């Protein structure tokens, strides 16, 4: 994920405070997406399948 994609998600998270479902499957996102997702505090469902993710992410 490049800086432009990350800043776009940050803008979305600041405007969509009550978003509960986010489907981002089938994109070229890598592990760099995780910091950009922290602003979606109301998420109940996050689909990141079919991306370029490796390792693990902590869920709080």
Structure description:
- The chain is an alpha+beta fold.
- It has one domain (3-47).
- The protein is 22% helix and 10% strand.
- It has one helix at 3-15; strands spanning 21-23, 45-47.
- A two-stranded parallel sheet has the order 1-2.
- The mean pLDDT is 83.
- This is Leucine-rich repeat-containing N-terminal plant-type domain-containing protein.
Please tell me the overall pLDDT.
Answer: 83
| Biggest pleated sheet | 2 strands, parallel
Q: Count every helix, treating DSSP H or I runs of 4 or more residues as helices.
A: 1
Structural class: alpha+beta
Task: Indicate the low-confidence ranges by residue numbers.
Answer: none
Tally of DSSP β-strands: 2
Tell me the series of helices and strands, N- to C-terminal: HEE
N- to C-terminal distance: 22 Å
Strand adjacency order, main sheet:
1-2
What is the overall shape? globular
Range of strand content: 5-15%
Number of domains: 1
**Approximately how much helix is present in the residues?**
10-25%
Compile the SSE list and pairings:
Layout: H1 3-15, E1 21-23, E2 45-47
Parallel strand pairs: 1-2
Features:
60 residues, alpha+beta, two-stranded parallel sheet, 1 helix, 2 strands, 22% helix
Gist?
This protein is of the alpha+beta class.
């Amino acid at each position: 994920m490049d800086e432009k994609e990350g800043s776009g998600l940050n803008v979305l998270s600041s405007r969509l405070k009550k978003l509960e479902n986010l489907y981002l499957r089938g994109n070229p996102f890598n592990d760099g997406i995780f910091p950009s997702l922290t602003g979606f505090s109301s998420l109940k469902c996050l689909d990141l399948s079919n991306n370029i993710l490796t390792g693990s992410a902590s869920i709080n």
